[in-house]
Write a structure and sequence with these properties.
Residues 1-20 form the signal peptide. The protein is of the alpha+beta class. It has helices at residues 2-21, 98-107, 114-117, 119-124, 132-136, 138-162, 165-169, 176-185, 190-195, 198-214, and strands spanning 23-30, 41-44, 50-52, 58-62, 68-72, 79-82, 89-93. It has a four-stranded antiparallel β-sheet, with helices on one face. A three-stranded mixed β-sheet has the order 4-1-7. The longest helix has 25 residues, at 138-162. The radius of gyration is 22 Å and the shape is globular.
Length: 227
Amino acid sequence: MKYPYLILSAFLFWAYTVNAQTTVKGTVVESGKNNKMSDVFVRDNQNRQMTLTDSKGNFSIRTETGHTLIFSSPGYVSDTLYVTDFTNKKIEMVAQTIALRQVNISAKRQTFDAHKEYPEVYTRAKVYPLSPTSWFSKEAKDARRLKKYFKHEEEERHVDEVFTMNYVQSIIPLRGQELENFMTIYRPSYEFVKNNNGPSMAVYINDSYKKYLALPADKRTLPDLKE
């Protein structure tokens, strides 16, 4: 009786070891502040595995040595990790200025189409009334979180395409850091952009500029990234 038990124990230990050795875990924080970041999109470029950080900034993803992990979040510079070992990682995301984000729209955002690149996410996210797994399994829940993330990203891309630096500075006289501050403070929502045309957007920018001028000087600046 002991022999089969020992074989089973050895097999379970081997399976646990293999899983542990092919999983990278870690935490994503905001550079300079050390704030833990939730809903950071993490993907393995080689095996198509993907995940999001949880509310405490933690992530866990299946990968292998030699693979590259990409970390991305709206408003932050994407970061990469070349996997050389499976120790816990700490990823620091750097906040993106509006100017840098404007430059990267055509270079990065338009090349990523979640529906085409990750159709399996949308399949796993479907809920079937007679399938408890589609409601409660971790895989299904993760897929729904990813689907929600992809939707938010698509909406933010659309705002970026309309509310551009060149367009805003063609309407109001702000330039440089002041323009970046203004665009961050008065960035329109996706719903507003979707339901308003060019003239309406111009009116919104002009009205927002008047509100900006009425703000005290200390309210027109953004908090420093470093504490």
